[in-house]
């Protein structure tokens, strides 16, 4: 295989033209050309509380079938997938699954957003509001800017420091330290709509990076900056960040769908085609019928987590043989 056919990524500091950056300025990933970045990439997509549980169930099911995908050269996490990325690099997936199944049944939940103390916002309201913003945009860049501006308007009356949301995120993590392996966490700068990728070299705590990536309602503050959900960067998976890896495994709780117009090319299928055109071998795992039933109508519903985790586990067990031949 010709290594020069692969693209890779270069991490560079944001320039002044990108907008105001504090001492917590974050690197952006820019496309570049070069040699193969690595062998295997694991991409973990967003999908709310149920999606996080499903991802853990899938990964734990693969581990028990003899396939440990947590040994990837890079793990890319978006929104709920960012939480999963930190969890599976800090604890055994089978232990994480057991914890989900053993947890006391939570009350049904409906808030769609994050970022600190806030009024109750239903998932339906959140989807309607953001769908209207997406429909009014004239492209991906304009969409991110509009979503960021709308999120900044929600700041009034919230916890200005975001410490409540940070504490919630931190409590979910087995470790507060960045793993030593390559883990990329996506977000979007709410001030200018620029895509942002955090890693252990960014000078930002792991909990802060994940709090930013999962901030789907009000923005999350890091220093002087505000960030919104990484799912708005390009997609709920952001699989394009795996360019340059020979084998890319994408786990997508949302099934690769997009709420943006299809001609914007933000759906997972387009990213998969781009990766394959660059020489990567790509496999995707999307929720099967049982998993979709386990999710219900609100993937932010904490009470769906045990069923979602079980469904992911069973789905992984049935597909482990195929994925093993791909991964190993």
Question: Could you explain the architecture of this structure?
Answer:
It is a single chain. This protein is α/β, with parallel strands linked by helices and 328 residues long. It is 37% helix and 17% strand. The strands form two sheets. Strands 3, 4, 5, 6, 7, 8, 9 and 10 form an eight-stranded mixed β-sheet that branches. Strands 1-2 form a two-stranded antiparallel ribbon. Strand 7 (220-222) and strand 8 (225-229) form a beta hairpin. Helix 1 runs parallel beside helix 2 (80-88). The protein starts with 6 loop residues before the first strand and ends with a helix. Residues 1-36 and 109-120 have low confidence and may be disordered.
Structure described in brief:
The protein has 328 residues and is an alpha/beta fold. The chain has helices spanning 48-64, 80-88, 93-102, 123-136, 140-153, 163-171, 206-213, 268-277, 289-295, 305-327; strands spanning 7-13, 27-33, 38-44, 74-77, 182-189, 195-198, 220-222, 225-229, 245-251, 281-285.
Secondary-structure map:
Layout: E1 7-13, E2 27-33, E3 38-44, H1 48-64, E4 74-77, H2 80-88, H3 93-102, H4 123-136, H5 140-153, H6 163-171, E5 182-189, E6 195-198, H7 206-213, E7 220-222, E8 225-229, E9 245-251, H8 268-277, E10 281-285, H9 289-295, H10 305-327
Parallel strand pairs: 3-4, 3-9, 4-5, 9-10
Antiparallel strand pairs: 1-2, 5-6, 5-8, 7-8
Helix pairs in contact: 1-2, 1-3, 1-10, 4-5, 6-7, 9-10
Radius of gyration: 18 Å
Distance between the termini: 17 Å
Point out poorly predicted stretches: 1-36, 109-120
Shape, principal axes of CA atoms = globular
Please work out how many helical segments DSSP would assign.
10
Q: What class do helices, strands and sheet pairing give?
A: alpha/beta
């Amino acid at each position: 295989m010709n290594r020069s056919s692969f693209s890779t990524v270069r991490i560079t500091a944001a320039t002044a033209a990108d907008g105001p950056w504090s001492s917590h300025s974050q690197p952006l990933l820019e496309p570049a050309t070069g040699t193969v970045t690595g062998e295997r990439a694991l991409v973990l997509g967003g999908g709310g509380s149920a999606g996080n549980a499903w991802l853990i169930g899938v990964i734990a099911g693969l581990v028990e079938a003899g396939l440990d995908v947590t040994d990837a050269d890079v793990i890319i996490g978006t929104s709920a997938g960012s939480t999963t990325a930190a969890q599976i690099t800090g604890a055994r997936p089978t232990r994480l699954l057991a914890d989900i199944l053993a947890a006391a049944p939570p009350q049904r939940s409906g808030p769609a957003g994050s970022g600190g103390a806030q009024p109750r916002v239903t998932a339906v309201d959140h989807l309607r509001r953001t769908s209207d913003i997406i429909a009014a945009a004239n492209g991906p860049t304009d969409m991110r800017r509009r979503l960021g501006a709308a999120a900044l308007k929600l700041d009034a009356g919230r916890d200005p420091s975001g410490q409540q949301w940070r504490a919630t995120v931190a409590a979910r993590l087995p470790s507060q330290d960045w793993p030593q392996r390559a883990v990329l966490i996506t977000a979007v700068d709410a001030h200018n709509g620029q895509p942002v990728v955090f890693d252990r070299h960014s000078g930002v705590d792991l909990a802060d990076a994940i709090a930013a990536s999962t901030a789907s309602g009000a923005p999350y503050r890091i220093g002087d900056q505000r960030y919104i959900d990484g799912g708005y960067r390009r997609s709920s998976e952001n699989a394009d960040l795996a360019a340059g890896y020979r084998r890319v495994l994408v786990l997508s709780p949302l099934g690769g769908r997009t709420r943006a117009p299809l001609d914007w090319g933000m759906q997972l299928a387009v990213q998969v085609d781009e990766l394959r055109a660059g020489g990567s071998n790509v496999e995707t795992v999307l929720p099967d019928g049982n998993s979709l039933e386990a999710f219900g109508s609100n993937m932010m519903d904490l009470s769906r987590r045990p069923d979602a985790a079980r469904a992911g586990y069973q789905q992984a067990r049935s597909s482990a043989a195929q994925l093993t031949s791909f991964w190993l």
